[in-house]
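no rush on this but wanted to send it before i forget. theres a chain ive been looking at and ive put its sequence and its fold in token form underneath. i want to understand how the tokens follow from the sequence so walk me through it. thanks a lot i owe you, the record is right below:
>
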Amino acid sequence: MIRRPPRSTLSSSSAASDVYKRQVEDSLSDVDGHLKDMLLDTALLSDDEEAAEIFPGFLARLAEMKRDGAGADDIATRKEAASWCIVHMLDKQLLPLRNGLQRVLGRDVVMSLDWRALEMMVCGEPHPSFEQVKASINCSLPEPHATMFWKALEGLTPEDWGKFFFFCSSQRRFPLNRKIGVFPDPRSTPNHLPVASTCFSQVRIPLYPTQEAWTAKLKEAIECQQMELA
């Protein structure tokens, strides 16, 4: 996977939080904004079978809503049915996890947990510390660029360090599966942004001439949190 910033402004998925919400029987997230166009297209489809191929369970949900008095041919109803299918698409996988937790810990204990607390217990702190960041990187930049790279990185926030982890490796939390390799990119100019190969946890960075440029380009690059095949 190659991550080439900046290409997308899509919002991040709620799927991860929904995993933990399902465990404590909390309300699941509504569909993210970047799915609205796809949902609208589906809602306008005249062929129910085609809609069902895109959203498994669409026909059953539409029939259920019709029995409850909703207009099956209404665009809003069809969109709501498609949205429900997305929110509940992982029920088959997540419900056994919840049953297992409740069997081991007891339902009262599980239900007393906030989903964020459960996520913290399973995954640890959501953002790395700078010491963890330093321990997760092998920097092969020449001086003085290595010094400017570390200074730019140190000036970021803990949330940004998590974004840097994800930009380089598709993981947000420490420890990473492998250390991130940081290399110079001789083919790029200072006008270019860093490019990450997440499959190998490597990032190639142009040798920016100033500390200000290092900081600005790094901040701009890590805002790219989407994948692109290349």
Remarks:
- The CA atoms of residues 91 and 188 lie 46 Å apart.
